[in-house]
Specification:
Layout lengths: L6 E6 L14 E2 L2 E2 H9 L7 E7 L5 H9 L3 E5 L4 H10 L5 E6 L7 H13 L4 E3 L13 E4 H10 L3 H6 L2 H4 L7 E3 L16 H18 L3 H4 L2 H10 L13 H17 L2
Parallel strand pairs: 1-4, 1-6, 4-5, 7-9
Antiparallel strand pairs: 2-3, 6-8, 7-8
Helix pairs in contact: 3-5
Length: 266
């Protein structure tokens, strides 16, 4: 790789979420949540291109239109085979590195994105993440991998969970790929800032509204991890808003894999 490899951020999103349908277009700070997130991603200094990866299903037409109207690129692919969607978005670009982000993480930290990219480059890794093992708040997950590693996964991944969640096959290749992780000095994995349920959205809105009220409109768009931590330290009662499990969607997919495997043996 070059000293400064080109980097594409792929943000996956759809409107047919099973737990909170249409969540990425729900309002946050006066705009659709997905646009709030994309504005934060744009602040990462090591990202050269951003694309929304959504499905070709008509249910996602409104999402694609809203994001295009805001000036962002959109790639559309299969609804459930998100890995193929990612591979298609990567192949439409000349980027050497891919950043995987999910559209239900509006508080994603641009500086954290840059740190994971920098670690992958410095250590010459094929894959690097801050989510395995979990040490940052759920909702600040960043995965960075090489274009070649992504295309290998698209070719070899077989399980439905591997196709839906994009990177499980990569993480299972520790004997073949160079894999690394970035951990928080302070354990923060107990915090949940992703939006899967309505009460998650209530928390995120409360955080954003409080920062904007405190420091002026747009403050939440510029805020980093520590701004949100300081706010929660001042208002710990907000933590009671969303008591859900981390990575619920992936846990459900693993259960479905097990059920399919058991059915095949009957």
């Amino acid at each position: 790789m070059n000293p400064r490899p080109s980097c594409l951020a792929i943000v996956q999103a759809r409107l047919s979420s099973s737990r909170l349908p249409g969540k990425v277009l729900m309002p946050l700070a006066g705009m659709p949540m997905i646009l709030f997130m994309l504005e934060r991603v744009k602040r990462a200094t090591l990202i050269d291109q951003i694309v929304l990866a959504t499905s070709t299903d008509p249910s996602d037409d409104a999402l694609a239109a809203a994001v295009r109207e805001a000036g962002y690129a959109v790639h559309r692919g299969p609804l459930d085979d998100v890995l193929t969607r990612f591979a298609g978005a990567a192949q439409a670009s000349d980027a050497e590195l891919i950043v995987r982000l999910t559209g239900d993480c509006p508080l994603i930290d641009p500086a954290l994105i840059d740190r994971v990219i920098s670690q992958l480059c410095a250590q010459k890794l094929d894959y690097c993440t801050n989510s395995e093992p979990a040490s940052y708040p759920d909702g600040l997950d960043v995965e960075v991998f090489t274009r070649q590693a992504l295309l290998q996964a698209a070719e070899h991944a077989r399980l439905p969970s591997e196709r839906e969640h994009v990177t499980p096959w990569l993480r299972a290749q520790a004997q073949k790929l160079r894999i690394g992780s970035l951990s928080s000095v302070i354990p923060l994995a107990q915090l949940r800032w992703t939006v899967d349920h309505l009460d998650d959205l209530h928390l995120v809105r409360a955080l954003v509204d409080a920062l904007d009220a405190q420091a002026g409109a747009g403050a939440a768009l510029r805020a980093d991890l520590f701004d949100f931590l300081r706010l929660l330290d001042a208002r710990p009662e907000l933590l009671r808003l969303n008591p859900h499990q981390r990575n619920e969607g992936y846990a459900k997919s693993l259960r479905n894999d097990a059920l399919q495997a058991a059915a095949a043996q009957l």
